[in-house]
UniProtKB/TrEMBL annotation:
It comes from the Bacteria. It comes from Vibrio sinensis. This is Outer membrane protein beta-barrel domain-containing protein. Keywords: Signal. Residues 1-22 form the signal peptide.
């Protein structure tokens, strides 16, 4: 039954993001980063990361799976290749726990196509009643 919970948690975020994307004009969409990024992270223990349109991040790891919708990005300083982001997501462990999370992170452009990212995500564990927790992730991605 738990395998159905992660898609159900992700469905509202995908719907909201589809509506938000429909309102953006084409010039904003052309300024987005490349469409696909793939990498590795320590998130749900050792994990594979797939990111689409610099907004939809899918994580599949040894401990479980997660999905993050990155809804806001910005940069600290135009001269430094360091950007920040805020998102909303859901997660589920293979054994029992599941919940929602709020990723707060930074991206660092290492070289052409390569990005290093780190995030802290306050998360609400909903398995045996609401319990507030703090998680984190560190990963590297290559953008195609």
């Amino acid at each position: 039954m738990k395998t159905f919970l992660l898609p159900l948690l992700c469905l509202p975020f995908i719907t909201i993001s589809s509506c938000a994307n429909a309102q953006q004009n084409t010039s904003q969409q052309n300024n987005h980063a490349k469409d696909l990024a793939v990498g590795m992270a320590v998130d749900q223990q050792l994990s594979v990361v797939v990111e689409l349109d610099s907004q939809y991040r899918f994580i599949l790891g040894n401990q479980g799976a997660a999905f993050d919708y990155i809804f806001k990005r910005g940069d600290f300083n135009g001269e430094v290749p360091l950007n920040w982001y805020v998102g909303l997501g859901g997660w589920a462990e293979w054994d029992d726990d599941f919940g929602v999370r709020l990723p707060l992170g930074v991206d660092f452009q290492l070289s052409q196509g390569w990005q290093l990212y780190g995030q802290v995500h306050p998360q609400l564990n909903l398995y045996k009643g609401p319990e507030l927790e703090v998680g984190g992730a560190l990963g590297i991605k290559y953008q195609f």
